[in-house]
Amino acid sequence: MDEVEVVVAHSERATLRVGDVFVKVDADQARIDAEVEAMSLAPVPTPRVLWRKPPALALAALTGTTLGRLGGPSTGSPTAWASAGAAIRKLHDAPLPPRLGRAGRSVTTLVAELDDECEWLVTNGVLPADLVSRNRRVAEAALRPWTPAFTHGDLQIAHLFVDGDEVTGIIDWSEAGRGDALYDLATFTLGHEEHLDDLIAGYGTDVDRDVIHAWWSLRSLLAVRWLLQHGFDAFAPGCEVDVLRSHM
User: Which residues pair with 93 in a beta bridge?
Assistant: First the structure.
């Protein structure tokens, strides 16, 4: 070990890599608690907990690589995407965890958040009003009753690892809990719509694609302000703003 790699860092949390160990430091102890609990309950491969000393958590690195990242190409094969879908389905079919996750926010809460973010985006000139209003209408399809499932809650493409076509693990469980299964599927395919068919083939059940598209709009509208305020570029090619533009 000759260096410390900063994987991600902002005002809420930071993740460092030292050799084969990841150290997560989180300002909110509840997120660390939720992550450890969710990994202990999830029926899919997760990182091994090496030690835990608030506010830090040390995890062993997973083998393999991710299928890609938001804003970048996916190097995964159709079979690897199908394997990811099968792993996600196994998670969603598991017994419900005790916590309500990020994917479990109520329709009332989501509507309030969505209204606030849309107003901020337009009032501050971040995005054109027609782009925001169009995606606000698309997002409506996600605001419906759903059957609770064991959800990851932040299942970005960069959080699932594969070795060849086999899933070796899923990381970053701090937002896990009971929630809408389609939120996970939408988060995983955000910016990678071309792989949705492969993912669903492995997931193995009928999926309402209109709701997936709605979650792409909803998640992107809710994310832009936070990303900009925490040093991330929502306008980068293939990222949240491009996702919103694709619905025009």
Answer: none
Cα separation, 233 vs 156, in Å, equals: 16
Distance CA 217, CA 87 (A): 25
**Largest separation between any pair of C-alpha atoms in the chain:** 51
Burial readout 91-105 (b: 16 or more C-beta within 10 A, e: otherwise): bbeeeebebbbbbbb
Tens digit of each residue's pLDDT (9 = 90 or more) over 145-167: 999 999 999 999 989 999 999 99
Q: Which residues of 201-212 are buried (b: 16+ CB within 10 A; e: fewer)?
A: ebbeeebebebb
**Domain 63-246: assigned CATH number:** 3.90.1200.10
pTM over 0.90, yes/no: yes
For the chain, give every domain's residue range: 63-246
Give the model confidence (pLDDT) of 78-100 as tens digits: 999 999 999 999 999 999 999 99
